[in-house]
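Cast an eye over this sequence plus tokens and explain the fold to me:
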Amino acid sequence: MGRSKIIGALPRMPLEVLRYVVLIAENGSTLAAAHIVNLTPSSLSRKIALLEHELDVTLFERHSRGMRPTATGHLVVDAARQMLQRMERLAADIDEVESVGHGSVRIHVSQSLVERFLMPVLVQMAKNYPNLKTDLHIAAGRQAERALVHDLADFALVVTAPNHPDIEIVAERPNRIVAVVSPSHPLARATSISIADLTAQPFAAMPPSYTSRVAFNSLVHSLNRDGQPQMTANSIPALKAYARSGIGIAVMPEVSIWDEDRDGDLLPIEITGLDGASTRMCLCRRRSRTLGPAAQRFLSALVAEFATTAMPA
């Protein structure tokens, strides 16, 4: 079938059938999918066969143990998931407009920004709007950017500045990468530390794909140093525990320890040479998507948090 014929067939494709396609792909057979939607396997098979005839393509390979998507089928399954998610989102937005104080918000956030920036706003929003539902996802690397582009998040709070043309940075702040130690550590009184001194001691850091580690590794490699950490962890609490124990130094974004810095529990030390390689705290959204009232209220509250929250003294 030519492209024009497929486009002509798509508007006639019921959302119900798209759901069947996704369920068969996820469950591997019409039997399992039919049980979920309360249809007979034969009835469901006929609906899929009719869809394949309508599009003039084969969506699934049939074999003795079930069905699996063809190359074309994978494309249709992915598109079907996106269409179903968008229709669910549309229904939620319409319901929200009709019912003030209701609605849902989907947020992707870098782990280092959860405690200090996101949770205070989330808690206050939950108090002000008890019927508001929040879907919070911890994102690493470019996951948040992909979620925005594919309409899986309303907005994102990240330390990885997005570079997609359809993503707008609503607010941002600098965020140094620092060496973190306990008050009992020999370097606790230091105001700065070189890469050579840091890598000569046990230290812990985020995985290589994380923004703070990328910036750190760039400087380490430029100085021809061996920058392999004693511990690698994609957990801010784990890095804090490492530093707090006195075992060694933890390399992480400074915002991660704002509260501990204020209380004197953990101490940040400037890493010489990394002052120009700071990460950025970015609040961003997709330009081409209109946010529902709940998401817009939440976003506005976070913008205010960015403007008023002060660095620890």
Remarks:
- The mean pLDDT is 84.
